[in-house]
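HOLO CASE FILE
Compound: (5S)-5-amino-3-OXO-hexanoic acid
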Amino acid sequence: MASPRKVMITCAITGAVHTPSMSPHLPVTAEQISDAALGAAAAGAAIVHLHARDPVDGRPVQTPDAYEPFLRKINEASGVVLNLTTGGAPTMPLTERVRPAAHFKPEIASLNMGSMNFGLFPMLERFTNFTHDWERKYLQASEDLIFRNTYRDIEYVLRECGESGTRFEFECYDTSHLYNLAHFADRRAIKPPFFVQTVFGILGGIGQHPDDVMHMKRTADRLFGNNMIWSVLGAGRGQMPIASLAIAMGGHVRVGLEDSLWIAPGKLASSNAEQVMKVRRIIEELGMDVATPDDARELLQLKGNLKLHNQQAA
Ligand code: KMH
Ligand code: ZN
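Model generated. Tokens follow.
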């Protein structure tokens, strides 16, 4: 009998989409981020996708100093694969966004595959009370902001992070981003297998209809065939329905409070681990297994769980 397919769960712990007043469960301090990442790993996440925040007001920050304490704790306690963002926040310049991944040289870094609108302002309809001054302004600013990822920017990330053997979570928010990825593959600037994270439901990218998922998958299959490891991320309420669809279609999944604050309609998730446990139940009920971090290393051909570069010794 064939062994069950192994499905990788990535958990994106805190991100830069939501602001602290939206949920008391959104990790903000280094301790909250490491606890949440370790909880997600214990629940079955093979990969944790990480951003840092200012511990006082929860604003996204991209200094290696902000990352070091939680990276050290996660690395000491778990073999989970570390994935550091190079997206940072759409408000930040690229040189700032890339600093943590260039400094720590993790197994994976994210790489956003095109410039786009990144509309966070619709959340102002749902959330009206904010503790910190920056939160409302940050959401409002997204009405007139481009999340910049030009060809030169992409080359810069590939150069700054790729030379150390860091591989990439290629974040593709629309079909054009798949074609951009194919362009870099044609130039031999990137090596397969390509970890393609298709993103559904960011205003400025493709939507969340099942046809959208089919279209991205069909296009990615045509462009990359067996050179692709396909994963999905549904923003907000589409998180679990899109994950379920992709699991049934042979894909991998990303969950976590970066992408959705919810565990059920109108009900905030109490932790990242709660979302991991939910998607894990779906995977197992469909007769598949959850991939371990070492399964993910093999599937994605990662460099291995070396001590993070530049991390202080424990
Ligand atoms: N929050 C996701 C939709 C990144 O970190 O590079 C996008 C993201 C970007 O994960
Ligand atoms: Zn992210």
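CASE NOTES: The radius of gyration is 18 Å. The mean pLDDT is 96.
CLOSED: yes
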